[in-house]
Design a protein that fits this description.
The complex is a heterodimer of chains A (107) and B (113). Chain A is an all-beta fold. Chain A is built from no helices and 11 strands. In chain B, the strands form 2 sheets. In chain B, strands 2, 4, 5, 8, 9 and 10 form a 6-stranded mixed sheet that branches. In chain B, strands 1-3-7-6 form a 4-stranded antiparallel sheet, with no helix packed on it. The chains are: A mainly beta (107), B mainly beta (113).
């Protein structure tokens, strides 16, 4: 079983839609969690950290469920500029990246 | 510098040659990672340095790959006797503490011809 698993997508959604991504991790001792965004042919960039209580940054909401070992990312009111690959990242003794979920927002 | 710096940004080399890739982490960051990303694929962990601890080399794909880091400064990733399957973008990232978020350099695009 992979340490971090994500649905590769692609998710094709219209502008204004709400879209949710899930990610599962295998190691219950994992300590910190993040969502990254990667645009085509660019390096990954931090989108947001994920806290146990859940956290929100504008249109983006991240949640962590330690009991079920999954992390989610919700994007509301999708924009064309949200089109990218979203990477789930889990830190146990080192940072492990999921393979990413590709999002394509169309007009 | 303000961010993680990698050099060169692009490297074309002949099969069988050795290459050396360089990473300058953010000043004060204790941890440094190297990842490989093939075209259309996810990030593949290669090696991790944390302070003065022994590096985690569990992701290095073969003994042709090696990396060094002196203290909490520059790291070099060396690939000996390059093969065509080594063609990829090599990404370096650093973190302030073990549990902190990572900041990436822009990567070195390696092409082996």
């Amino acid at each position: 079983r992979k340490e971090v698993e994500q649905d590769p997508g692609p998710f094709n959604v219209p502008e204004g839609a709400t879209v949710a991504f899930n990610c599962t991790y295998s190691n219950s001792a994992s300590q910190s969690f993040f969502w990254y965004r990667q645009d085509c042919r660019k390096e990954p960039k931090l989108l947001m950290s994920v806290y146990s209580s859940g956290n929100e940054d504008g249109r983006f909401t991240a949640q962590l469920n330690r009991a079920s070992q999954y992390i989610s990312l919700l994007i509301r009111d999708s924009k064309l500029s949200d089109s990218a690959t979203y990477l789930c990242v889990v830190n146990t003794d080192k940072l492990i990246f999921g393979t990413g979920t590709r999002l394509q927002v169309f007009p | 510098g303000a961010g993680v710096s990698q050099s060169p940004s692009n490297k074309v080399t002949e099969k069988g040659k050795d290459v050396e890739l360089r990473c300058d982490p953010i000043s004060g960051h204790t941890a440094l990672y190297w990842y490989r990303q093939r075209l259309g694929q996810g990030l593949e962990f290669l090696i991790y340095f944390q302070g003065n601890s022994a590096p985690d080399k569990s992701g290095l794909p073969s003994d042709r790959f090696s990396a060094e880091r002196t203290g909490e400064s520059v790291s070099t990733l060396t690939i000996q006797r390059t093969q065509q399957e080594d063609s990829a973008v090599y990404l370096c990232a650093s973190t302030y503490r073990r549990e902190s978020e990572a900041f990436f350099g822009q990567g070195t695009r390696l092409t082996v011809v």
